[in-house]
Amino acid sequence: MDTDRIDLNELEIFLTLAEELHFGRTAARLGLSQPRVSQLLRALERRVGGLLFERTSRRVTLNPLGERLLRGVRPAFAELQRAVADTRSAAQGLRIGFLGPYVSTLTEPIAHHVARFPDCPVELVQVPWTDVFGALYRSEIDLQLCLAPVEQPGLVIGPEIATFPRLLAIAKTHPRANSAVLTLEDLADLPVIGPSPQVPPELARTFWPPALTPTGRPIPRLPAARTEPEMLGTVANNRGVFLTTTAMPTHFSHPGVQFIPFTGMPDARVVLVWRKGNDDSKIRDFANLAAPYQLTPSGARAHR
Fold first, then answer.
1. Residue range 191-239, pLDDT digits in tens
2. From CA 141, how far away is CA 158, in angstroms rounded?
């Protein structure tokens, strides 16, 4: 045996067994057979010239030689894993999720990112209203553009990069379709398409109107629409209205739907979020580039 050669499989077995202190759990965790775990550990012990664990029929413990190896190997192995993950991540590029109407807020930040990091391509992934943060939690995307506030465990809230005034989508045949502006009080007479039950509660609470108008009149709710085309179809058929933002008509329209300025609800804010513990430098790079190009309510970029 070449005692100077480093075998990563042996080191992975050693580090996992040092955590589990059980051959069966180590084998299950690594998807190996228990005899294979024992074989690789014996090979490592021959390589270093001594036993690393005390084994009895009841327990497995690190001995002083094993503790010495663990102190040296654990940080080096973690650094090696990070290097491989960073390289793999760079090869995959940057995957950014977005809710449909807000994709254009990413155009300028992406252009700056690609110009600065030409070897890091950007992939855009639309996330559904019925599973707003699912792709992020499943690591299918690296970061996400979403509406504030975000009150989700395990997520980092990055810079705010856009704000949008509110609009009300209403059928062009509706008697109120020619209004110059509509208010929260008007919604007592206009059934509103509600949020899907899967919409995060903080978003349902702040993006959709409250249960009552300022004078205490109930605001009627219609069943949720899962997509923007569903919502527009429901509105066009004069079955209800939908409270949205100035981002909506930029990307989604319908010949039977009118968008009217709406007051009584704060502007919608759009922020970047990513998973806690994800230290990928490309995420921070993009967030830092996106922050100086905030989109103001007027639609102009404000370089901060």
1. 999 998 899 999 999 999 999 999 999 999 998 888 899 999 999 998 8
2. 15
Q: Judge whether 17 and 42 are in contact, CB under 8 Å.
A: no
* Beta pairing, strands 166-171 & 257-263: antiparallel
Closest CA to 302 of 162, 186, 172, 119: 162
As given in the structure block, the two tokens for residue 183 are 């208010």
Contact 63, 54 (CB under 8 A): yes
| 130: phi then psi, degrees, rounded to nearest 5 | -85, -5
Q: What is the DSSP letter of 141?
A: S
> pTM for the full model?
0.67
For residue 24, what are its two tokens? 């069966």
Joined together, the tokens standing for residue 44 give 């490592």
**Does the pLDDT value for residue 80 go beyond 70?**
yes
Region of 135 on the Ramachandran plot (φ > 0 left; ψ -120 to 50 alpha; else beta): alpha
